Amino acid sequence: MSEAVTRTEQPARRSVRRPAxxxxxxxxxxxxxxxxxxxxxxxVDRFWLQAGLFAMAAAIGATGLNLLTGATGQLSxxxxxxxxxxxxxxxVFAGDGDGADGLTGLGLPTWLAAVLAVLVAGVAGGVFxxxxxxxxxxxxGIATLALIFIGQHMLFxxxxxxGGFNGRDVPPLHLFGLTFDDSxxxxxxxxxxxxxxxxxxxxxxxxAGGLFARGVLRGxxxxxxxxxxxxxxxxxxxxxxxxxYRAAVFVLSxxxxxxxxxxxxxVFQRTVPEYFGMTLSLDYLAxxxxxxxxxxxxxxxxxxxxxLLPQILTRYSDLxxxxxxxxxxxxxxxxxxxYLYGAAVVAVVLFLPGGLVRITARHGRPTPQExx
Length: 372
Description:
This protein is mainly α. It has a single domain, classed as ABC transporter involved in vitamin B12 uptake, BtuC, CATH 1.10.3470. Helices cover 71% and strands 4% of the residues. Helix 7 runs antiparallel to helix 10. The protein is globular. It starts with a helix and ends with a helix. The relative contact order is 0.16.
């Protein structure tokens, strides 16, 4: 009898130890990753820092789109419009109106200009949210796609604000007595330019945005958003204010896009209208599908994949078959990247519906037998 009791206790003890081990392993991996990210500006060159900054900005924007499309089920193909509002809003608020370029600028403190640009992007989302609340599925996607054409027309023709086809310079950010420009700041015998300084700003913004979005998804708002996505009528019957939640999520997603636009503008140091086109919106949809719909980690993984792939192909185009500079007979790195992550979208839809984040979840979560 005692032998039988001992045998039944052993699996229970293993099931207790296993989650504790996984939690410790996840903590160690997270700590090592944090140390690595903090140390990178001291060891890698400017190319990799800028590539990482583009990935951070993309991850912030993809997190907002995942709240809207992945968690709430509202298809948006106009995400690039709100990124443009954030980028150009920052330039207008922070720009000097007395500059030699003759462009409109309010000359506000740059930190305040960044905050106002994010808020204006949220206001733009709020203005469009009543239209979004009346439409669903492909009809909503088409309506948001119209924002791209409207935005492109404004960016190319409102020359006093946007600089037209040539765009406009981006004023460097001034925060806590530090200027995020190319003026060198020596830290531990390493010269810090704009990329090194913005690296830590990008990490802070990404961490704050990711934690806030995760809190939303894990709390009561997240459950309400998922209910609206799964069955809008049933969500209304059980007391979820559907219209209010859909409008609020649209505003929140637009603010995430505005923040990503501000960070992109600071990294590029110049805004150009053609960047904020339909292709950028499709890239963001690819990010959340590849990474995983409705998941913050999925948005980060998908954003890193889609944003880093063309830059890596460009960097190593001489070493890759069939990939070469435009006009040389091969496939341009940008086109090759779109082929690859287009194939990745198809593969994820067919074989891994939960996105790449499902792979990490499988390795980090105990099996059903271990749970019991």
